[in-house]
Design a protein that fits this description.
Largest sheet: none
Number of helices: 5
Helix content: 55-70%
Order of helices and strands: HHHHH
Number of strands: 0
Distance between the termini: 60 Å
Shape: rod-shaped
Oligomer: single chain
């Protein structure tokens, strides 16, 4: 999953605009920092990468990465499930064939009542 983390993040102002320019109070609550810290970050158009990443995943780009990964994973696992079903069907056929030709009626077979 770490491979999906963006190496380069959009500028803070762009991220904030994309998530609807939330108030500094709301940002402070979400990121668990002081409002003055948020104000300083916005004034400098820069914040710690961890906070920037947290906000990035709320943007359309972050959600798109998550959605795309989920769809690709679902397709992969559905394909694997179909493959396993095909393999199971093939093995059941082989087993039935072996059981059919392996019935030699040996002397120690139980007697069906």
């Amino acid at each position: 999953m770490l491979a999906h983390a963006p190496r380069v993040l959009p500028p803070l102002a762009v991220v904030l605009a994309d998530i609807g320019n939330p108030s500094t109070t709301d940002l402070a609550a979400v990121l668990d920092v002081d409002v003055r810290t948020i104000q300083r970050w916005i004034a400098n158009d820069k914040m710690p990468r961890t906070a920037h990443l947290a906000l990035f995943w709320l943007t359309r780009w972050g959600r798109s990465i998550v959605d795309t990964t989920a769809v690709n994973d679902a397709r992969l696992y559905a394909s694997l499930a179909r493959s396993r079903e095909d393999e199971l069907r093939q093995l059941r056929g082989q087993l039935a064939k072996l059981l059919a030709i392996a019935d030699f009626g040996s002397a120690n077979d139980p007697i069906a009542a």
